[in-house]
UniProtKB/TrEMBL annotation:
UniProt cross-references to PANTHER family, sorted A to Z: CYCLIC NUCLEOTIDE PHOSPHODIESTERASE CBUA0032-RELATED, PHOSPHOHYDROLASE
Record's keyword annotation contains RNA-binding: no
Source taxonomy: Bacteria, Bacillati, Actinomycetota, Actinomycetes, Micrococcales
Name this polypeptide is given: Predicted phosphohydrolase
UniProt organism field: Brachybacterium faecium (strain ATCC 43885 / DSM 4810 / JCM 11609 / LMG 19847 / NBRC 14762 / NCIMB 9860 / 6-10)
MF annotations from Gene Ontology: hydrolase activity; metal ion binding
Family, as annotated: Belongs to the cyclic nucleotide phosphodiesterase class-III family.
């Protein structure tokens, strides 16, 4: 099974809006998809959250205006996970059940080859960090009690990994031990996440975790020193399952929505004082 893993498009309802007054996020997504146009034999397209920046119905319509034809060209189903910038209720109202899968709740999405994608909504209204309620873990445990013939993939916006930077550690997923206890011994072959905006790998309960690079920008977790910075890049990952450990292939390209066309200039750079203010507003 081959999955195309996309994440963090941060689309706006207002076509004139720019992310950090710089990135045309719709152009970033379209440009990346154009560069991925030669991909074939994709079994599903999975978007792991922060589909929208402003949580508007218009932004979700734009998302599907762009992604639906792309997924259809691959003859692949599309699944969209909710992230901390998303508004699940708005998405569920905008995307009509029966036409596309709503992401306003946890759900199971059938995959080819008798597999399944299990989607968890880790968003917390008004916050940047992630959380899974006890009833969500109970629901996940019930789903995993009956294995799928083709195995399972878990998609959740906030990675079940300790973050690499101080800012992201204040905005990561809590309750990792409880989630690990549910996943232990299950048929989940990989966990797919976004949120960190940079590629990262690890594991939970012995299960590989892959964080795909962001589409609207890519965070530099190593080169910023004490600061936090993101670069005008866009990325995506290809996940290949079956016949052993998952194989992950990622690409990072110049951002097609960068109105400054300056890949050397960070999209943002936050010093420790700015990080503290962000965490005060959106962290725990």
């Amino acid at each position: 099974m081959r999955l195309l893993h996309l994440t963090d498009t941060h689309l706006y309802g207002d076509p004139a809006a720019r992310h950090y007054d710089r990135i045309d996020t719709a152009a970033a997504l379209r440009g990346l998809l154009d560069r991925l146009g030669t991909l074939r034999d994709i079994d599903a397209v999975v978007h792991t959250g922060d589909a929208s920046e402003d949580g508007t119905a218009q932004s979700y319509r734009l998302l599907h205006e762009i992604l639906d034809p792309f997924a259809a060209s691959l003859d692949a189903p599309l699944a969209v996970v909710m992230g901390n910038h998303d508004v699940s209720a708005v998405y569920g109202e905008t995307v009509v059940p029966g036409e596309r899968l709503p992401a306003a709740q946890d759900r199971v999405v059938p995959l080819p080859r008798d597999g399944r994608l299990i989607v968890l909504d880790s968003s917390v209204p008004g916050a940047g960090y992630g959380h899974l309620a006890p009833e969500q873990l109970d629901w996940l445990r019930e789903q995993l009690a009956v294995p799928a013939a083709g195995g399972s993939v878990l998609a959740i916006h906030h990675p079940p990994l300790v973050a690499a930077t101080a800012l992201l550690r204040g905005l990561d997923l809590d309750g990792l031990d409880a989630l690990a206890a549910v996943l232990a011994g299950s048929d989940v072959s990989i966990v797919l996440s976004g949120h960190y905006h940079h590629e990262m790998s690890g594991e939970i309960a012995g299960i590989p975790v892959h964080v795909a690079p962001g589409i609207t920008n890519v965070v530099d977790p190593l080169g910023g020193g004490a600061d936090e910075r993101a670069l005008a890049l866009s990325g995506a990952s290809l996940i290949e399952l079956g016949g052993g450990a998952p194989r992950v292939i990622s690409t990072v390209l110049p951002n097609a929505g960068d109105v400054l066309e300056d890949p050397e200039r960070p999209v943002y750079r936050f010093d420790p004082a700015q990080v503290a203010r962000i965490l005060e507003a959106a962290g725990r």
